[in-house]
């Protein structure tokens, strides 16, 4: 029979039951979020993902890959609901989850068609790259570093004055940070470049608890150079990485321009390294550029 004459898969009772369970889960989480005073977040982080997940539950897949896509997407959406404003974790991990799910499906189908006896050997083979950091395999290069350099149209003495005044809240210019909803400080206090001076970066809270803060202290100071250590980190970003040390340097390029260089060392909290290493490197770099906006605006 020609392919265009094939009837589309029909919804079954299982599809309706699954959609109903998803809706019930969403209703409970939505009510809890609204009662906590976060009605705006409830619409964005609960209602929208639940509606999408329920819609997918009522959409039977035509092929094996279609069914895998539907199930994987539903799981990711419900995970985003559970994590609420930590849904950025789901967004960052989604490409990896889809790749593993569809890669496993494709390999199992290929081996199944070739030899039924060896079809399920594909699963442990595909899991091997993801064992890093699980306790079975060691972590690879979790210590990472980001360096950002900017030349500003100010004489070096004016730049030193601005840096000594401490960071101040600034609009997030980075498109990736805005699109992914990566948390950025919205409350900043502290100033000074002398040893012992402290800067505090506060993050807004959510329905699941306070956003926390990051406290940095000047550890070393010299003309054109300041080193910071991080003495306390209760921020939401501690889920993904641990801040180690920051190095801030500035020097005159000419009478009207100054080069500002900041290097941040951190410990990656997500594995595997081949996926999350470059991803966190990029996002931390965008975050450091935002930090420069808070200290020496463009």
Helix and strand run:
HHHHHEHHEEEEEEH
Estimated helix fraction:
40-55%
Q: What is the first-to-last residue Cα distance?
A: 65 Å
**Would you identify the regions where 5 or more consecutive residues have pLDDT less than 50?**
1-5
Strand order of the largest sheet: 1-7-6-5-4-3-2
Q: Return the CATH topology of the largest domain.
A: Alpha-D-Glucose-1,6-Bisphosphate, Chain A, domain 4
Main sheet?
7 strands, antiparallel
Number of strands: 7
Structural class category = alpha+beta
- Quickly count the domains: 2
Describe it.
Strands 1-7-6-5-4-3-2 form a 7-stranded antiparallel beta sheet. It has helices at 13-35, 39-57, 64-83, 88-114, 122-127, 156-164, 175-180, 273-295, and strands at 143-152, 187-189, 198-202, 213-222, 225-233, 241-254, 257-268. Helix content is 45%, strand content 21%. The chain is α+β, with helices and mostly antiparallel strands. Helix 3 packs antiparallel against helix 4. The chain starts with 12 loop residues before the first helix and ends with a helix.
């Amino acid at each position: 029979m020609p392919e265009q004459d094939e009837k589309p898969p029909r919804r079954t009772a299982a599809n309706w039951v699954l959609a109903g369970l998803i809706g019930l889960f969403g209703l409970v989480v939505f009510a809890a979020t609204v009662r906590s005073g976060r009605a705006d977040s409830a619409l964005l982080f609960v209602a929208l993902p639940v509606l999408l997940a329920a819609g997918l539950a009522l959409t039977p897949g035509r092929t094996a890959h279609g069914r895998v896509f539907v199930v994987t997407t539903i799981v990711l959406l419900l995970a985003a609901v559970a994590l609420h404003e930590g849904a950025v974790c789901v967004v960052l991990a989604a490409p990896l989850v889809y790749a593993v799910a569809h890669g496993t499906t494709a390999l199992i189908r290929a081996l199944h068609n070739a030899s039924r006896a060896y079809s399920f050997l594909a699963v442990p083979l595909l899991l091997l790259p993801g064992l890093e950091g699980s306790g079975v395999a060691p972590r690879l290069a979790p210590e990472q570093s980001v360096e950002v350099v900017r030349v500003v149209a100010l004489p070096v003495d004016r730049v030193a004055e601005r840096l000594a005044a401490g960071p101040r809240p600034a609009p997030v210019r980075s498109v990736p940070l805005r699109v992914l909803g990566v948390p950025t400080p919205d409350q900043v206090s502290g100033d000074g470049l002398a040893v012992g001076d402290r800067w505090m970066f506060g993050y807004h809270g959510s329905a699941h608890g306070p956003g926390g803060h990051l406290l940095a202290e000047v550890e070393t100071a010299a003309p054109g150079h300041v080193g910071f250590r991080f003495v306390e980190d209760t921020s939401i970003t501690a889920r993904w990485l641990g801040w180690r040390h920051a190095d801030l340097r500035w020097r005159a390029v000419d009478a009207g321009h100054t080069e500002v260089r900041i290097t941040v060392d951190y410990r990656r909290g997500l594995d595997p390294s081949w996926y999350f290493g470059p991803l966190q490197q990029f996002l931390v770099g965008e975050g450091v550029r935002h930090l420069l906006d808070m200290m020496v605006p463009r």
